[in-house]
């Protein structure tokens, strides 16, 4: 899958090839891997809420001068599936360029085989997270 950053492609392949019962365990691992917010974002200042998510979810994506993207996500621990989406994106997009982020396929979660493991409502929330993230990256790229 050359249409996304290598680390994200690796994560997608791991999920796509994993047995269904292992997928949920993998999601929980990613839910635990969401980096904490920096102090300046503690009140969600400058972050966008994703209303399509059933739980409160906030994100911020900025393009640095070198073209790399920095992402920040916040979601309560009691929403492990939604946190897992954040963990997957945080790890999979770490160090990615704006062009790589924008090239991430919109059907990312379907490619991971998650539709067989989690509800359509959760998939819709994850898809909305990715769409808003890509929109922020495009806007930040245009400003730069």
From TrEMBL:
The record places domain Fe-S metabolism associated at 14-136
TM spans (from-to): none
Identification of the protein by name: Fe-S metabolism associated domain-containing protein
Gene3D superfamilies xrefs: 3.90.1010.10
**Species of provenance:** Actinoplanes missouriensis (strain ATCC 14538 / DSM 43046 / CBS 188.64 / JCM 3121 / NBRC 102363 / NCIMB 12654 / NRRL B-3342 / UNCC 431)
**Family listed:** Belongs to the SufE family.
Superkingdom, natural source:
Bacteria
Q: Which InterPro entries match?
A: Fe-S_metab-assoc_dom
Give the matching Pfam families: SufE
PANTHER family listed in its UniProt record: SUFE-LIKE PROTEIN 2, CHLOROPLASTIC, SULFUR ACCEPTOR PROTEIN CSDE
